[in-house]
Amino acid sequence: MMPPTADGEPLSGPHLSETAARLACEYARFDLEQRVAAVCDHVSGRIVFTTSFGLEDQAIAHAIFVQDLAIDVVTLDTGRLFPETYELWALTETRYGRRIRGFFPDRDSIERLIENQGVNGFRASPDARYACCAVRKLEPLGRALSGALAWISGVRAEQSSLRAKMTYAAVDPQRGILKVNPLFDWTRDQVARFVGDHDIPRNSLHDRGFLSIGCAPCTRAIAPGEPERAGRWWWEHEDKRECGLHDRHPARRPESALA
After folding, report:
1. For 79, which DSSP code?
2. Residue 3 neighbours by CB under 8 Å, 6+ apart
């Protein structure tokens, strides 16, 4: 179902598409803080920003917090994050005086997943890994976005060929809500410079070659010259390695994990 508007009428595809087009037009001339604030200007309803505490997400969180915007900042705690990520979570809350709500996997689903594939069974095949991501990420994301009209993410075009096909803002076809990528046209150097200029807390793993950080068992440091997402699910022989948050695959449905 489409989420309702502030006056109770359901949002239709055309309305969402028009909002996405307006944002895309404005973003070309806006800085990051203006881009994030513009989502609040155009959306009358719940807005959610999902952070994994990467460099991009820390930049967006800063833009939200310093402007005290009415945006729910949440994270998906898969239960297998790096200790450094939890440390940054706490440091970010202290720095900005805001709580970041964690969404956790369903206990019964996790227990069935591990019973079915083992504690590290996700390495057996891409479908097994998609199943793990479905339970640990996709189902919690669904709850995090429940009732939201807009979802803000840290996707950048430069991150991968798949992400380069996305845009500043569009209607998420699976969820029927507006998805906004305020850093879409930024390079990693631009993000790093913004984080440094504003003294924004950052994950210490970045200094050890971890450019894209997810679950600890599924993330490694990259070698010089490798693409920044090469350290994610590196054992898979696929060009487009994603978890399903920003793309969809039939095997990534949560129920596939319980088969």
Report:
1. S
2. 10, 11, 45, 147, 148, 149, 176, 177
User: How many angstroms separate the first and last alpha carbons of the chain?
Assistant: 26
Three-state DSSP class for 2? coil
Domains belonging to the chain, first-starting first, are 13-253 (3.40.50.620)
Tokens 């591990």 correspond to 114
State the catalytic residue, choosing from 132, 133, 215, 243. Answer: 243
User: Please, are residues 40 and 69 in contact by the beta-carbon 8 Å criterion?
Assistant: yes
Average pLDDT value for residue range 119-138: 93
The percent of the chain in helix, strand and coil, each rounded to the nearest 5, is 45, 10, 45
- Summarize the confidence of residues 53-75 as an average pLDDT: 98
- CA torsion, points 248, 35, 37, 150, in degrees to nearest 10? -20
Between CA 14 and CA 152 the distance in angstroms is 19
pLDDT bin (cut points 50, 70, 90) of residue 232 is: confident
The predicted pLDDT at position 96 comes to 98
CA distance 155 to 132: 22
Specify whether 243 is catalytic.
Answer: yes
3-state secondary structure (DSSP) of residue 49: strand
pLDDT at 1 over 60: no
Confidence of residue 246 (pLDDT cuts 50, 70, 90): very low
Position 252: which residue type? R
pLDDT tops 60 at residue 160: no
Q: How many helices (H) and strands (E) does the chain have?
A: 8, 6
